[in-house]
């Protein structure tokens, strides 16, 4: 199995890369002999620290069709995963070389592109990121095109989570000197500011500091602190970490403060209390949908609001609502995604053998 990941990438944000990295890590656990490769912008904040082999591009892959096509021809993937990235020429190159093609859309524009007639002929699996109650059900026009085109397979990718691992959990808790249910986990995102919220990392870091000053063990992920000498002892800064470690911290947290991206859905899937804050323009809608269904709370991107909401919960936790059949679930889609990759890889391998014969 040769997996090529082509996520949108740049100097800001890392949601697409994080989703692809979670899938890549899970694929390597299931198939240790698999070969994984990424194509990302050299300006991406994770480009220098990624554990995966990379082809570095001058900017996001969408703007460099020639380089991506050359990479596809040289790498000879069995499956290519385009995450919110890609041009017609790139999808065509992957399809023409016999690879299975997965397109992940998390925005309306990319979802619309994936339902273009020509693209539907190149894509084998269209994964709509986020649950159906957030992303929106298939429209009548989308269902009609699927009936006529008879492809691709469409699935909602609620969230991706590795299975619980007691060994990883114990080691991770030990490294931060915390016990399950006695700490606050603060995960604002990739650590780089978004154009719609340039001050987001500093605001969230300031809130985490004040929560820690109230005596609550607080783990702050992905935001560097410059004044270590004055850091309260209950504040534990952490670098960005692999998803298996982060997932164990989420599962053990008393409260999680996060943005409105993938982490929000991971927290809900782990059934942990959550306060979400929008730090990018497309996150407010997701948070509002989760709040409306009683799956999370929200806060403004302001230090007093974040601290007030967190302390209100910590000092007087609300009663856990009874399960309701009307309450949507956030499912872990990792197993289904891996099964799809296995099927596409098998079909691609059969196709290559048939063409060679």
What name does CATH use for the topology of the largest domain?
Rossmann fold
Order of helices and strands: EHEEHEHEHHEHHEHEHEEHEHEHEHH
Shape: globular
Give the name of the CATH architecture of the largest domain.
Answer: 3-Layer(aba) Sandwich
| SS element count, helices | 14
- Decide which structural class fits the backbone: alpha/beta
Total number of strands = 13
Outline the low-pLDDT stretches. none
Radius of gyration: 21 Å
Main beta-sheet annotation: 7 strands, parallel
Give the end-to-end Cα distance, rounded to a whole number of Å.
Answer: 20 Å
CATH class of the largest domain: Alpha Beta
Q: Per DSSP, what share of the residues sits in E-state strands of 2 or more residues?
A: 15-25%
Average of pLDDT: 90
How many structural domains are formed by the residues?
2
Describe the fold and architecture.
By secondary structure, the protein is an alpha/beta fold. It is 42% helix and 17% strand. The protein has helices at 15-30, 65-75, 88-96, 108-114, 117-122, 132-135, 140-149, 166-175, 200-213, 243-252, 262-269, 283-292, 303-315, 334-356, and strands at 2-7, 35-41, 54-57, 79-83, 100-105, 125-129, 153-157, 183-187, 217-221, 235-238, 255-258, 274-276, 297-298. The strands form 2 sheets. Strands 3-2-1-4-5-6-7 form a 7-stranded parallel beta sheet, sandwiched between helices. A 6-stranded parallel beta sheet has the order 10-9-8-11-12-13, with helices on both faces. α2 (65-75) runs parallel beside α3 (88-96) and α8 (166-175) packs across α10 (243-252). It is globular and about 60 Å long. The mean pLDDT is 90.
